[in-house]
Amino acid sequence: MLDGPIKILVPTGSLGAGAREEEVRYGIAQGAHAIATDAGSTDSGAAYLALGISKNNRGSVKRDLTILMRAGADAGIPLIVGTSGQAGGDLNLDWTRDIVLEVAGELGLRPRIALLYCEQDKDRLKQYNQAGKVRPLPPLGALDDATIDACDHIVAAMGPEPYIAALQGGADIILGGRTTDTAVLACFALMKGAPAGPSWHAAKIAECGVQCTVKPVSGAGVLISIGPDGFEVEPLSMGNRCSPESVSAHMLYENSNPFLLTEPGGVLDVTDAEYRQLDDRTVKVTGSVWKNQPYTMKLEGAGSRRFQTVMLIGIQDPHVLEAVDTFHDRMLAALYDRVHKTIGPAAGDFHISLRLYGWNAVSGDRPPPGTPAPREIGVLFVATADSQEMASQIAKACNPYFFHFPVVLDEELPSYGFAFSPADIDRGPVYEFLLNHVVEVDDPMELVRTVWIDLGEGEKV
After folding, report:
1. How far lies 311's CA from each of 260, 280, 308, in Å?
2. What is the pTM of this model?
3. Is the omega angle on the peptide bond into residue 444 within 30 degrees of 0, that is, cis?
4. Which domains are seen in the chain, by residue range?
5. How do residues 70-105 score in pLDDT, each as one tens digit?
6. What percent of the chain is helix, strand and coil (3-state, nearest 5)?
């Protein structure tokens, strides 16, 4: 273990979100031993894994990598990136790799790069399932081969062990596939012998960068310092600060239990953690405990099964706005009836939804009686069917009713404000997460493939 605390510079909550050069300089000046950042999430849905693409644009990721690679090389410290390219699949990782190689050439750097792949072979995963090593997470049930085959890509979320092995192998830059956010930030400290409780807890607090501060829109990153009795966290921006409340609150982020956090190989328990204001900007945390458990890796699989066509209108009709729920129910029934009468059984197992923006589109809950009428609503029509052609035909069949359906039957037919012409827009495949399971492994490395690129040697190892 290093003398003194182990300091990890977390420049941003997600690679491409906007690392700041002055903050990175500050973290380096404070003695950072590594730069570590997450680069993805499941937050934005299944399409990024199914398609192997990034939500962040290439320019923003390249900008951040240019700042971080230059800083890491100048300081002689490693750069560690997890869940590369948004979803951490092989295509996502290769996309990030190509940017890193481009930046290295532009900066004249010759780093030793470790690529950690965790996309899974379907036949091998079926063997794990048959051996009883795969179990579902709520609300899914037992996994079957058909579901595995329906996935376009499947990844297993890595813990810190592949990163530790890469660091011990002399990596200057590590690009990881799908990884838990915390493992990316905890790996260096764990490798150096820091206690597991503070290492994991510090990583959880810092995973979203500046979000654990009192001004989550002021700055981008934080610095965590992990010692034998706990850890400290401070913002990289001098105009910001951490408080015990802002730090402790981040245990609630994407976590149903504010005291327990399940990770590969164990559970972080912060039930007895204490959060203390150390100075104006820094909070110190003690009492974090790590409890070992059998090693599991979360499986995420994404694919597409059905197709959608959408239409959009805006409504300011006072009759509709005074009876939004009634309007919704009557129109939806009329649209289903229209499809059954005009297309019939050929429509298959179709589905129509109406999403009322300005009323209840986000929650889906009906507002309580007496809720004031909105000024206007936007109504999104979504037809889902087994083929794009059928989804489109359903939308076309519903078009006249969708744009002119009255809530008051004895008045002239209304016309609502359609947003586009043609009105029906084919959205394409519906991408879904089809796997939400964990797989038991004997070795944290057994589902991971490591590829080395050593630009100093000019070859791939």
Report:
1. 44, 53, 10
2. 0.92
3. no
4. 6-118+157-295+441-460 (no CATH), 304-434 (3.30.70.600)
5. 999 999 999 999 999 999 999 999 999 999 999 999
6. 35, 30, 40
